[in-house]
């Protein structure tokens, strides 16, 4: 399992128990207004996104980490490296 640990944060691969927490984040209009088209997401969309994150890790050897507070273990979002899909080819 790939993970990075700092004084405040744990960056790790996605687990099944992250879906509910990430779904709650994706359901917040104030959070999502800054992401993508600004629409909130549901649990099914969140699960599909996490599955995509994990598939890309397996394909590329890098990707999006689940981002947790070290003190509580609570999921606070994600961070990492991605190949931009908006660039001209």
Helix/strand layout:
Elements (H helix, E strand, L loop, with lengths): L2 E3 L3 E4 L5 H9 L2 H4 L10 H18 L3 E6 L5 E6 L9
Antiparallel strand pairs: 1-2, 2-3, 3-4
Helix pairs in contact: 1-3
Overall description:
By secondary structure, the chain is an alpha+beta fold. It has one domain: 3-Layer(aba) Sandwich (Aminopeptidase), CATH 3.40.630.30. 35% of the residues lie in helices and 21% in strands. It is built from three helices and four strands, in the order E-E-H-H-H-E-E. The chain has a four-stranded antiparallel beta sheet with strand order 1-2-3-4, with helices on one face. Helix 1 packs across helix 3. It is globular and about 35 Å long.
Put the structure in a nutshell:
It contains 3 helices and 4 strands, in the order ββαααββ. With 89 residues, it is α+β, with helices and mostly antiparallel strands.
Properties at a glance:
single chain, alpha+beta, about 90 residues, Aminopeptidase, globular, four-stranded antiparallel sheet
Q: What is the fold-level CATH name, i.e. the topology?
A: Aminopeptidase
Count of helical regions: 3
The tally of domains stands at 1
Q: How is the largest sheet built, in terms of strand order?
A: 1-2-3-4
Helix content range: 25-40%
- Looking at the overall shape, the CATH architecture is 3-Layer(aba) Sandwich
- What proportion of the residues form beta strands (DSSP E)? 15-25%
Please describe the biggest sheet, giving its number of strands, its sense, and whether it closes into a barrel.
4 strands, antiparallel
Number of strands: 4
* Nearest-integer average pLDDT: 93
Look at the structure and give the CATH class: Alpha Beta
- The secondary structure category is alpha+beta
Low confidence ranges: none
What's the order of the H and E elements?
EEHHHEE
Could you give me the name of the CATH homologous superfamily? Gcn5-related N-acetyltransferase (GNAT)
| Mass-distribution shape | globular
């Amino acid at each position: 399992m790939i993970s990075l640990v700092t004084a405040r944060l744990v960056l790790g691969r996605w687990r099944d128990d992250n879906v509910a927490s990430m779904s709650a984040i994706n359901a917040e209009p104030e959070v999502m207004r800054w992401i993508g088209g600004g629409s909130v997401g549901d649990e099914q969309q969140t699960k599909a996104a996490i599955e995509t994150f994990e598939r890309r890790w397996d394909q590329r050897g890098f990707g999006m980490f689940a981002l947790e507070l070290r003190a509580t273990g609570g999921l606070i979002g994600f961070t990492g490296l991605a190949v931009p899909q908006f660039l001209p080819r």
